[in-house]
What does this fold into?
Amino acid sequence: MPDLLSPLSTAPHKSAAFFDLDKTILATASSMALRGPFVDAGLVTRRAAIMSVLVHLPYILRGADENRMNEMAKTLGDLAKGIDARRLEATVEESLDSVIDPVCYLEALEEITRHQAEGRPVIVASASALEVVRPIAKRLGADGILATIVAKDEEGAFAGEILHFNQAEGKARACAELAAERGWNLADCWAYSDSISDEPLLASVGHPVAVNPDRALRKIAEEREWRIERFEKKARVGRALPRPPRKAIFGLGCALLAVSVAVSVSLRRTSA
It folds into this structure.
């Protein structure tokens, strides 16, 4: 795998902080927050938007086990078929101020700032599609991303096949591989999530944090004496996070690109 984060710093890091996105950094699922802009941009029909909400409801209301998440991945892959990936990402970028900033948890933004101030890279590890996560991660000032990879056809439209669903064991493996590549000791790493589906990731790090956990995750967190946090305040990113220096902004773009390339290369090697 390529060197992912070296453009951001010349000093090696011993640990990192992995953040789930939906209902951990954001107060809702990114796909639900963005359904209006997607419909307005003509990317999806209102019926498809409603179906997407219905597919997410078990996760939003009760959390999701691996079977539910796999079913959700297949359904969302079918719903996404034919959507122009570049146009979708541009729509997310254009919608950050109106629908993403207002649903960011202040407490999550403060944790991101704290980790980076302590020299710890922040990785957004989400089950949402790369094209959805990337603009949000840039806005958050994240140092890297791991996300779901959806196959695209020759014209750049989603082909309906999920190449890598970044959830449950898949997300935990992706984070572990990135940590091994960068020399991070997982025992010194942090991970934040709201869902029982991320139990494999939380169990793999030395500092697991259950954020507004669903019932199943709360039970495990209490049994294992994991840190449990309640995030509830909202804040716009620009007001909660200090503006990064110009050099860091340049490095972030390189880092995010490298992460997406790395995941794609890894997938090609796996399928070979």
Notes: The CA atoms of residues 196 and 217 lie 5 Å apart. The longest strand covers residues 144-152. Residues 6-271 form a domain with the Rossmann fold fold (CATH 3.40.50.1000).
